[in-house]
TrEMBL record:
Transmembrane intervals: 444-465
Protein name, as recorded: Protein kinase domain-containing protein
Record PROSITE patterns: PROTEIN_KINASE_DOM
Species name: Nocardioides deserti
Composition bias type Acidic residues, residue spans: 293-305
């Protein structure tokens, strides 16, 4: 079958091409239908004479040996009809790059669980001797159930012409997947369509610098794999995919509910739902009720709705004849009332009887309701002590004759029984002095203001006395300023270097210009020790992770700072201090590190004692033809 195949064509008398999903570099990716097993499959097709064809068949053969539920399996591979094709299991879901573009970065726990699932699947394939080679967000699929599937194991790298033995590349790309899930940016070594992560002087920014709220364990994992010079990598077992999976599993803990939450955040296609209302009975005019044989109005053809059959209406109970028509009422349907329990409909009609008028307004009584009626021989009221006629309350205007006041003068308080005892219905009399009390709380407020002023004056006096005696404002410190002065840290001194050797444990011959190594500490910045010129940058994806020199101090010395004069910028430097002469840096603890320009220093957080100081270069400046580092002078201070 030629490469000009179209949808509907059949490959190998079995696979019917359905949709062309992508096309690049002479290869096509189809969704096809397996007519034998009646299922959809993914079909990669290139020309049989393509240079990648042998590698593609070999990659498919090796990928088929990996058995893991999270890996989309290889089902078939063949050279036939002038093409080379590989058939993969079809997966349904959303790829991680589309998920990040539509929904944004994931939460830390979802991101850690997703990448942990990918890392566990990759660790299984590494145990079988198979590497992926291109772990990018496009090759991670999130199914509708929230579970994770890995696409193109070993096959996708062969289609892109990448090497098949990239275990270190897979581990670095796992950190790139975690970085992308947390920030939406790609920081791995394999090419991806996701926007690249921001960098500063060739150094990928940490996830916490790109997005706030990233937990420190996940930030440290990305830093250890993407920028190994800056992290305490000896504290993290992240050199393998299995180590990455175990680290993320410990961070996530119990994963219950995480796949469901991830599925909920995955964009889904929502189909519109049809809402069916309960049937509504026909509207019958009031005048038509008296005509049982009146024909029903025919529905309008343009507005007729097809409704589902509703519950049958009960027959009317026997009773009196129909109500006679009323000419004075307009024809109207009223308001429907729906019963949610039975779906029955009743009607609320306008009332036919007028609303009764409100009761007439009653005049207020001309005297207090609790006052006794004087016409019944009730006791009269006596005036309230100390209250004049003008100060009487609202009840003073009641026209009540009796002892204690003239009719209409309102001078009563309380009711007088004639025997010197009150009726008990009045309030106790209070002697009035003729003046009103002050506002409640004002006396306490004045007292608080006075106390506050006194406290401020006392504090000012204490401060003035302490300053006059040479003490602090609150009396702290000695009267002699020399007694309270903190001791000044001792200045750093230069430590003599007794010898310099090169350190290249990952090189083929184990040396890196050893004859030039003493020039790095000869006191002349113009004479330099330099590395070889590499066509590829140092790092996890390069041929080496680093190269450096070893400074012999002659005896154990306390090292606090290493000052360097370099050629070219930027140069990433990591410093190690050891008691024994090192042959590698894998087992050494990082004492400090930084990205330096042509002159700079690496300050150790805490002074470290040792005889040997290793200056380890993990990233070199770009020069013509590749990358090369040069050290003009190294000064050790302690």
């Amino acid at each position: 079958m030629p490469q000009t195949a179209r949808p509907g064509d059949v490959l190998a008398d079995r696979y019917r091409l359905v949709d062309l999903l992508s096309e690049s570099r002479g290869g096509r990716f189809w969704r096809a239908h397996d007519r034998v097993l009646e299922r959809h499959v993914a079909l990669h097709v290139i020309d049989a004479g393509d240079d990648r064809a042998p590698g593609l068949i070999d990659a498919a053969r090796r990928s088929a040996t990996v058995l893991d539920r999270r890996v989309l399996r290889v089902l078939d591979a063949e050279r036939l009809e002038g093409v080379c094709y590989v058939v993969n299991e079809w997966g349904s879901g959303t790829s991680l790059d589309i998920l990040l573009a539509t929904s944004g970065p994931l939460s830390p726990r979802k991101a850690a669980w997703l990448v942990g699932e990918v890392a566990d699947a990759v660790a299984t394939s590494h145990a079988a001797g198979v590497t992926h080679g291109r772990l990018v967000p496009e090759n991670v699929l999130v199914e509708r159930t929230g579970h994770v599937r890995v696409i193109g194991l070993c096959v996708d790298a062969a289609l892109h012409g990448l090497p098949a033995d990239g275990a270190a590349t897979d581990v670095t790309d796992l950190a790139g997947l975690l970085y992308a899930a947390l920030t939406g940016k790609w920081a791995g070594v394999s090419p991806s369509a996701v926007a690249p992560a921001p960098q500063e002087h060739g150094h990928v920014l940490r996830p916490r610098q790109v997005r706030a709220g990233v937990p420190r364990p996940l930030d440290a994992l990305c830093e250890a794999l993407l920028n190994p010079y800056a992290a305490r990598r000896d504290l993290l077992d992240v050199t393998t995919a299995r180590g990455v999976a175990a680290y993320l599993e410990e961070f996530v803990g119990d994963p219950a509910g995480v796949p469901e939450a991830l599925a909920a955040s995955t964009p889904q296609v929502n189909l519109p739902s049809t809402i069916v209302l309960p049937p509504v009975p026909d509207v019958v005019p009031h005048d038509a009720r008296s005509e049982p044989d009146a024909p029903e109005p025919e529905p309008d053809a343009e507005t007729e709705l097809v409704e589902p059959p509703g519950p049958s209406e009960p027959e009317p109970a026997p009773g009196p004849g129909p109500e006679p028509a009323r000419a004075d009422l307009p024809t109207e349907a009223g308001l429907p009332i729906f019963d949610d329990a039975t779906d029955d409909v009743s009607w609320l009609e306008r009332r036919t009887e007028p609303v009764p008028p409100p009761p007439p307004f009653e005049e207020p009584p001309s005297r207090p309701l609790f006052a006794p009626d004087p016409t019944d021989g009730a006791p009269a009221r006596r005036p309230r002590p100390g209250v004049s006629h003008g100060d009487a309350g609202p009840h003073a205007f009641a026209d009540v004759p009796g002892a204690g006041g003239a009719p209409g003068d309102g001078t009563y308080w309380p009711w007088d029984t004639g025997d010197g005892r009150g009726t008990g219905t009045a309030l106790p009399a209070v002697e009035d002095t003729g003046t009103l009390d002050e506002v409640p709380g004002r006396r306490w407020m004045r007292l608080a203001i006075v106390l506050g002023i006194c406290a401020a004056v006392l504090l000012a006096t204490v401060v003035a006395v302490n300053l006059g005696r040479g003490r602090g404002p609150l009396g702290t410190g000695a009267e002699d300023p020399t007694e309270s002065a903190s001791p000044t840290a001792a200045p750093l001194s230069t430590v003599a270097v007794q010898g310099v050797t090169d350190l290249d444990p990952q090189g083929g011959d184990g040396v890196e210009n050893p004859e030039l190594a003493p020039l790095a500490a000869d006191g002349d910045p113009a004479s330099t020790w330099r590395t070889a010129t590499y066509k590829q940058q140092l790092g996890p994806a390069g041929l080496k992770t680093g190269v450096g020199i070893v400074l012999d101090l002659g005896s154990a010395q306390e090292v606090a700072q290493v000052e360097l004069t370099l050629v070219g910028a930027p140069t990433e430097v990591v410093v190690y201090v050891s008691d024994t002469e090192p042959t590698a840096v894998r087992d050494l603890a990082v004492a400090g590190g930084d990205t330096l320009e042509e002159r700079g220093r690496v300050s150790l957080e805490e002074p470290v004692t040792g005889r040997y100081v290793v200056v380890w270069l993990t990233s070199l400046p770009a020069v013509e033809g590749g990358y090369r580092g040069e050290v003009g002078e190294v000064v050790v201070r302690g």
